[in-house]
Description:
Number of strands: 0
Order of helices and strands: HHHHH
Helix content: 55-70%
Amino acid sequence: MVATPKAVPIELARHAEPPLMMPGKAPRSAGPLRVAPLLLIGGLALAAGGVIAWVDTRPRWDDTGITAGALLVVAGLAALAGLHWWIAAVLVACPLLLAEARTVGWGLVLAPAIAVVGAVGGGLLRRVAARGGDV
Length: 135
């Protein structure tokens, strides 16, 4: 006795998930041509965060607004350049958190928050630009 497959109702077939790979198209992969620029952007974001942390720990530096603005701009640019927003925020804020780990204060809370705001803004700008201006 041979089992015959049951017919799939049209309603169910209409709402079925699309196949993972369309015929005639190569699957999308994160090959070296896609990863290398992201590694470069990540390294630059980490280096910029290190410079911000170095300047912020100088004895005569006492301008929190410029430090916060630099965190906001650098995290936003890193996300705009292609990094995921949370990776950009971590890479930019981490050096400052490590440099300020000895002091417990609002800086340990505000620095990552400012970096997250900048990175989310940069990620949103990237998404708007990719869609041609449509949100």
